[in-house]
């Protein structure tokens, strides 16, 4: 339950997940909704922090997709159910990722009219 731990611990957990997962491995996180998940609830969502939840406000504001990417975990799916949500992430395959990035760079260069040799 990520809303129970400080931001530094989020980083430690994701670092460990990235370390132990094989490339292509799946990490699934289930916790409460965050700001923006259910916009009608946004004005009230952080009131939960009043119930001895010191890390909840930080949790509701953390972009876990961006944070996971820092550790080589690619966001896959997000499902909302009532006041909960499920996020899934896949560990990138460094060989495939490098090949994909190289192909993307080559495609960008090929599409760039300023890089043509006429």
Short summary:
This protein has 118 residues and is α+β, with helices and mostly antiparallel strands. Helix content is 41%, strand content 20%. The longest helix is centred in the C-terminal third of the chain and has 18 residues, at 94-111.
Keywords:
alpha+beta; single chain; three-stranded antiparallel β-sheet; about 120 residues; 5 helices; about 20% strand
Q: What is the structural class?
A: alpha+beta
Q: Main sheet? A: 3 strands, antiparallel
Global shape? globular
First-residue to last-residue Cα separation: 58 Å
The average pLDDT value, as a whole number, equals 85
Q: What fraction, in percent, of the residue positions are helical?
A: 40-55%
With helices defined by DSSP (H or I, 4 residues minimum), what is the helix count?
A: 5
Strand content: 15-25%
Largest sheet strand order: 1-3-2
Poorly predicted spans? 98-118
């Amino acid at each position: 339950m990520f809303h129970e731990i400080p931001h530094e611990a989020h980083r430690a957990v994701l670092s460990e997940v990235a370390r132990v997962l094989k490339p292509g491995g799946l990490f699934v996180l289930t916790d409460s909704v965050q700001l923006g998940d259910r916009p009608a609830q946004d004005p009230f969502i952080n009131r939960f922090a009043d119930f001895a939840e010191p890390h909840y406000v930080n949790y509701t504001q953390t972009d876990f997709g961006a944070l996971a990417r820092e550790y080589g975990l690619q966001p896959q799916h997000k499902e909302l159910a009532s006041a909960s949500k499920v996020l899934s992430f896949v560990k990138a395959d460094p060989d495939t990722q490098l090949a994909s990035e190289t192909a993307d760079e080559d495609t960008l260069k090929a599409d760039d009219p300023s890089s043509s040799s006429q």
